[in-house]
Amino acid sequence: MSARFQQNAVVEAAPLDDEIILLEPESSQFCTLNRTAAAIWTLVAEPATLEEIADGVCGQFAGASEADVRQDVEEALKQMVALQFVTRLENGTA
User: Fold this and answer.
1) CATH topology classification for 4-84
2) So where are the chain's domains?
3) How many other CB atoms sit within 10 Å of the CB of residue 21?
4) H-helix or E-strand containing 72?
5) Exposed e or buried b for every residue in 33-57, given b needs 16+ CB within 10 A?
6) Rounded-to-integer distance, Cα 51 and Cα 53, Å
7) What proportions of the chain, in percent to the nearest 5, are helix, strand and coil?
8) Phi, psi (rounded to 5 degrees) for 46
9) Which among 16, 21, 2 has a CA at the least distance from the CA of 85?
C-alpha cells in the first residue's frame, strides 16, 4: 500500500485570491501557496495518495502533462511534509 498524505490538523489556512497562506503554529512556520500548491493543499483535506493528488491536479489544469504534474506534486509534498504542513501516513496511519 502506498503512502497517503493529509493536512496537518494544527495548520491554519487562509485564502488569498488564487493562493492560500498556511501557518504551522507550533513551529511558527508559514508559507504562501501558489495556485498549484493550493490545489494540492485542498486535495489533501482527506488522506490521498500521490497518484490521487496528481490526478486531481491534472483535472484542474487543462493541458498539463501527467509526468510534469506528478513530479511537481511529489516535490511540493516533500516540501509541505518538511515544513510540517502535511503529514505522510504510512499504510493509512500516522
Assistant:
1) Outer Surface Protein A; domain 3 (3.90.930)
2) 4-84
3) 14
4) helix 66-82
5) beebbbbbbbbbeebbeeebbbbbb
6) 5
7) 40, 30, 30
8) -115, 150
9) 21
Q: Kindly list the distances between the CA atom of residue 65 and the CA atoms of 34, 35, 43, in Å, as whole numbers in the listed order.
A: 18, 17, 18
Q: Look at phi and psi of residue 41 and say left if phi exceeds 0, alpha if psi is from -120 to 50, else beta.
A: alpha
Residue whose grid cell is 485542498: 42
Q: Could you tell me the pTM of the whole model?
A: 0.90
Res 18 pLDDT > 60: yes
Start-to-end C-alpha separation, the chain: 14
Q: Which helix (H) or strand (E) holds 74?
A: helix 66-82
pLDDT per residue as tens digits for the range 25-62: 999 999 999 999 999 999 999 999 999 999 999 988 88
